[in-house]
Amino acid sequence: AVHDEPGFFGCLSASDGLFVGKPSMDALPAALLGASHRITVQLGTKVTAAEFDNGWRLSGTTLPKPGSSSAADISELGKYDALVLTDVGNLLRGRAGHVAITGQAAVRALAAVSAAASQAERMPLFALMMSFESPGSGLPFDAASIQGGRVRWLAKDSSKPGRERADGRECWVAITTEAFGKELLGSRDATGALPAQTEEYLSSRTDTMFEILQRDLSTIGLTLPAPAFMRAHRWGSAYVGGQPPGDPAACIHSAAARLAVAGDFVAGGGAGGALKSGIAAADALVDSCQQ
Ligand SMILES: Cc1cc2nc3c(=O)[nH]c(=O)nc-3n(C[C@H](O)[C@H](O)[C@H](O)COP(=O)(O)OP(=O)(O)OC[C@H]3O[C@@H](n4cnc5c(N)ncnc54)[C@H](O)[C@@H]3O)c2cc1C
């Protein structure tokens, strides 16, 4: 597993400070996008095929609209100078995010990284969001990693800058170990799909996670009051296990195909690794587009 140190993504051992989005994490991409007026983001769209022919011709589907069960096919998403693949699922046939790549130069460039990606194991995690009425949870810390516990990380969201709530409630997030995440996941069906996240599914995971958290806390003499609200959230593929296929802080790049493969599954290291990998991909693609 990638994250076998105590804490979560190096939070307990960070020597150069901890960074959080203010007031929430989506401030980070919003600020990056706001810094450029030349970026258009097309949300709710899944790329399913990409053909390289002196540029990238993309096609895909839109995600189902609320109340509708089927996705709409879009034959043509446009032609682009370069392509960046940012998800390990893009490289794996049969996975939800798979992108069928055609064009000789691109297929050649991807052969090695696709082979490495097929060995990668996707790690599921569950998060439990909880809020407590004033005077709060009573826990004597802002964040903790319970050694030997099934909850790997517990953090007080309300202690982060700008996250105080007007109603005075105190919010916490607990995150499972990989092993406990797998246990909570349930069985995949014959196609490899995860169980549907029905109300019943999520509410049973919520209760189980809270019970296990209480058990973990009791080993250090602590107990939580009943939360005013709690809800489990599933991250079916929170991150990729094993050795990243690329160099840290780098991307895999083909100048001939104007193609880069980037993200945490290439560089490792959570959001920081993903960011550095993205910058490396952008630099490499600017160079290859100018050739
Ligand atoms: C619960 C949790 C807590 C975390 N906490 C931390 C933390 O405290 N610190 C930290 O550093 N890291 C943390 N991480 C890890 C961090 O979120 C990831 O490392 C980071 O988001 C990886 O960025 P990425 O760009 O590589 O991939 P992603 O953020 O996964 O982005 C890939 C994007 O590609 C999209 N995509 C995939 N396939 C397609 C397709 N076919 N068509 C169109 N779009 C597609 C996906 O929808 C997704 O938006 C946490 C992760 C989880 C799950």
Automatic annotation (TrEMBL):
Q: What Gene3D superfamilies does the annotation carry?
A: 3.90.660.10
Q: Which domain of life is it from?
A: Eukaryota
What InterPro entries does UniProt report for this protein, alphabetically? FAD/NAD-bd_sf (IPR036188)
Name recorded for this polypeptide: Amine oxidase domain-containing protein
